[in-house]
C-alpha cells in the first residue's frame, strides 16, 4: 500500500487557506442572495415592465448616455468656472477728471543748526587765572568780565612806567617855573614836555597789556564749558571757553541741483519769498514754532554730491535752539495751477506710471504720465494729462485699453476732499 507523504509545510498552508476560502464562499452566496432579493423587489414595485426585446445592452447604453450627460454638465460648469474665475459682483466704474489748482509741494532736508556767532574765547596774555566770575551755561552781556588773569610781569611794567611818568611830570613843572623866571629857554620847556608825553604813552601801553588779562564778552551770548579752573596757569592763546550768540540761528541744508533751479526761479519771481515757506522739525518730531526764511545760498556746488548748501535763518526768542543741533527742514513751495489727480487713479508697470483716460466716445486709453512731485494722496503731473481730461478712478482692474465703458462721473473737487487711498 502506497501512502502519499504530504509535507508539513503544505499542510500548514492548507490550514491557513481553507478558512479564507470558506469566508469567500459565504460572502459570494450572501451577495447572490442580496442581489436576488433586490431583483424580486424591483420586479414587484415597478410600474413599467420591460418590453420584449429590451435587453441588457440597451439598458447599459442608456446608463452610459446618462453618465456622459452628467459628466458633460459637470465639465461645462468646471470650464465656465475656470474661464470666468470666481463670480464676484462687478464694481461700478467711477471716472473723474484732472484738475488745475494751487498746491504746496513740501520737501524734507536734513539740516544742521549753528549759532549766528560762535567763537572760542582765548587768553590774550599768560598768567595765573585769578578769578572766573561766570558759570557754565550762563548768559552774559557785551563787555561783561568773564576771566581775570593775574599778569605779574605786566603789572610790574605798568608800575615802572607810572613812576617814570611821575618823574617826567615833575621835571616838566620845574622847567616851566624856570622859564617863567627867564632862567631857561623855550627849548628846555619843549624838551621837558616831550619827555612827559613819552612817559605817559608808555603808561597807556602798559595798561593795555595789563588789560589783556581781563577777558570780557565781545557780544551777548551763552557761555559754554569752562576749559580751565581758577588758579590754573594760562599761556597766551589758550582756549578758556566758547561763546554762542543764539538770538538768530543759522540752519544749513543741502539741496539737489534740480530743486535748486526750481527754488531759485521761485525766489527770483517773488522777491518777498511768499512762495517759499521754511519750517523746522526738531529731533522730538515737534515743529519749531517760529518760521524761517531763506537768507543765503552758497557759491559753489559740491561736485561729489551734486548738492548746494542753503542757509535759512530762524529767530530764537526763547533760546530753545542751540549750536550743534540737528533737525529737518520742510521747504514748502507753492505750485500755482498745478495739474493734480488722485494717486489711486494710477497704476505702475515696470517703473512707469500710467492712467486710463476716457475719450469722447467713452473708450479707454492707457497713457503714461510723468510726475512733478508726490503729495499725501495726490500726484502733481508734469506731463501726460491736461486739466479736464477724464480718467478712471475706481475699477482700474476691470478695464483694458480700447474698452468702451459705461461709467459714473464724480466731481474732482469732491474726490480730492475725501482722499486717503493710494494707487492700486
UniProtKB/TrEMBL annotation:
The keyword Signal applies. Residues 337-397 form the Multidrug resistance protein MdtA-like C-terminal permuted SH3 domain. Residues 249-331 form the Multidrug resistance protein MdtA-like beta-barrel domain. Its main location: other. Residues 46-61, 72-88 have a biased composition (Basic and acidic residues). Residues 35-88 are annotated as: Disordered. Residues 1-22 form the signal peptide. InterPro entries: MdtA-like_b-barrel, MdtA-like_BSH, MdtA-like_C, MdtA-like_HH, RND_pump_MFP. It is found in: Cell envelope. Pfam families: Beta-barrel_RND, BSH_RND, HH_MFP_RND, RND-MFP_C. Keywords: Signal. Residues 62-71 have a biased composition (Polar residues). It comes from the Bacteria. Residues 154-209 form the Multidrug resistance protein MdtA-like alpha-helical hairpin domain. Residues 117-239 form the Multidrug resistance protein MdtA-like barrel-sandwich hybrid domain. NCBIfam families: RND_mfp. Belongs to the membrane fusion protein (MFP) (TC 8.A.1) family. This is Membrane fusion protein, multidrug efflux system. It comes from Neorhodopirellula lusitana. The lineage of its organism: Bacteria, Pseudomonadati, Planctomycetota, Planctomycetia, Pirellulales.
Amino acid at each position: 500500500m502506497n501512502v502519499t507523504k504530504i509535507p508539513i509545510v503544505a499542510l500548514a498552508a492548507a490550514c491557513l487557506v481553507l478558512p479564507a476560502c470558506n469566508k469567500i464562499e459565504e460572502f459570494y452566496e450572501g451577495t447572490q442572495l442580496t442581489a436576488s432579493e433586490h431583483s424580486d423587489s424591483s420586479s414587484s414595485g415597478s410600474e413599467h415592465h420591460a418590453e420584449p426585446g429590451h435587453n441588457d445592452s440597451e439598458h447599459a447604453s442608456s446608463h452610459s448616455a446618462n453618465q456622459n450627460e452628467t459628466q458633460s454638465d459637470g465639465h461645462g460648469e468646471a470650464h465656465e468656472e475656470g474661464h470666468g474665475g470666481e463670480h464676484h459682483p462687478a464694481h461700478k466704474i467711477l471716472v473723474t477728471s484732472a484738475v488745475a489748482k494751487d498746491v504746496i509741494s513740501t520737501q524734507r532736508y536734513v539740516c544742521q543748526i549753528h549759532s549766528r556767532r560762535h567763537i572760542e574765547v582765548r587768553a590774550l596774555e599768560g598768567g595765573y587765572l585769578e578769578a572766573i566770575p561766570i558759570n557754565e551755561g550762563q548768559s552774559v552781556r557785551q563787555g561783561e568780565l568773564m576771566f581775570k588773569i593775574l599778569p605779574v610781569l605786566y603789572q610790574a611794567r605798568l608800575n615802572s612806567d607810572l613812576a617814570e611818568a611821575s618823574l617826567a611830570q615833575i621835571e616838566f613843572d620845574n622847567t616851566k617855573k624856570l622859564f617863567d623866571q627867564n632862567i631857561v629857554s623855550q627849548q628846555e620847556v619843549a624838551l621837558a614836555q616831550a619827555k612827559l608825553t613819552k612817559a605817559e604813552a608808555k603808561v597807556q601801553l602798559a595798561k593795555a597789556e595789563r588789560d589783556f588779562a581781563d577777558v570780557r564778552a565781545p557780544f551777548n551770548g551763552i557761555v559754554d564749558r569752562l576749559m580751565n579752573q581758577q588758579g590754573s596757569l594760562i599761556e597766551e592763546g589758550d582756549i578758556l571757553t566758547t561763546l554762542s550768540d543764539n538770538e538768530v540761528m543759522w540752519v544749513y541744508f543741502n539741496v539737489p541741483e534740480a530743486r535748486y533751479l526750481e527754488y531759485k526761479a521761485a525766489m527770483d519771481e517773488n522777491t518777498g519769498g511768499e512762495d517759499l515757506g521754511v519750517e523746522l522739525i526738531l529731533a522730538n518730531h515737534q515743529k519749531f514754532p517760529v518760521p524761517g526764511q531763506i537768507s543765503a545760498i552758497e557759491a559753489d556746488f559740491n561736485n561729489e554730491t551734486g548738492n548746494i548748501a542753503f542757509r535759512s535763518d530762524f529767530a530764537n526768542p526763547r533760546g530753545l535752539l542751540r549750536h550743534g543741533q540737528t533737525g529737518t527742514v520742510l521747504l514748502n513751495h507753492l505750485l500755482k495751477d498745478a495739474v493734480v489727480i488722485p494717486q489711486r487713479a494710477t497704476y505702475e508697470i515696470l517703473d512707469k506710471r500710467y492712467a486710463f483716460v476716457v475719450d469722447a466716445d467713452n473708450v479707454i486709453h492707457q497713457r503714461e504720465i510723468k510726475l512733478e512731485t508726490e503729495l499725501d494722496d495726490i500726484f502733481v503731473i508734469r506731463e501726460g494729462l491736461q486739466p479736464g481730461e477724464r480718467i478712471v478712478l475706481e475699477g482700474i482692474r476691470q478695464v483694458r485699453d480700447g474698452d468702451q465703458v459705461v461709467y459714473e462721473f464724480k466731481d474732482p473737487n469732491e474726490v480730492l476732499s475725501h482722499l486717503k487711498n493710494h494707487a492700486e
